[in-house]
Amino acid sequence: MTLEEQRLEESRQRRAHWKRWGPYVSERQWGTVREDYSSSGSAWNYFPHDHARSRAYRWGEDGLAGISDRHQLICFALALWNGKDPILKERLFGLTGSEGNHGEDVKEYYYYLDSTPTHSYMKFLYKYPQSEFPYAWLVEENRRRGRNEFEFELMDTGVFDADRYFDVFVEYAKVSPEDILIQITACNRGLDAAELHLLPTFWFRNT
Q1: Were 195 and a residue from 2, 83, 117, 187 both cysteine, which residue would form a disulfide, CB within 3.0 to 4.6 Å?
Q2: pLDDT computed for residue 101 by the predictor
Q3: Closest CA to 140 of 180, 95, 106, 182
Q4: pTM: predicted TM-score of the whole model, two decimal places
């Protein structure tokens, strides 16, 4: 029996709560029916990305590479700032259904690279441009395009040209159900030095 199989068995028998902490924080809580209190039932327009940094959620939280306990009482996620963006990069950016020429769409590059069944090990990758993130351009250009045209993607803006971006890896490893190592590794893929602020954040969900 492998160590992970032992953890699964301990979890099944409730001798150790290996699944108490896991990737239970969504990448995007804004613009969903979970947070829709509009009179018209228009979740996308009621709670767009632009509101997410200044309004409290009612039914969950979101973040980059986030984890929480299974009741989502305590959350952890990574925030980033490249010194140029007007806001912190705290959650995934995307288009609402009316903004995208093919409907709702996240305009980011992120990858879940690994996770064991008990989440005793997890690995996440986010690709963060070193230049200002083109929030307005992505909205305006996709809204302008028709349904028969290609979507305007983040890669099309040129922010990744000459590899001017950071690969930000977030890894979690559990020593025990409550003892978790968090390792954040940022790799500058460009040739020149660039500014990057890492802001690991713990918070209590709005209950």
Answers
A1: 83
A2: 82
A3: 95
A4: 0.93
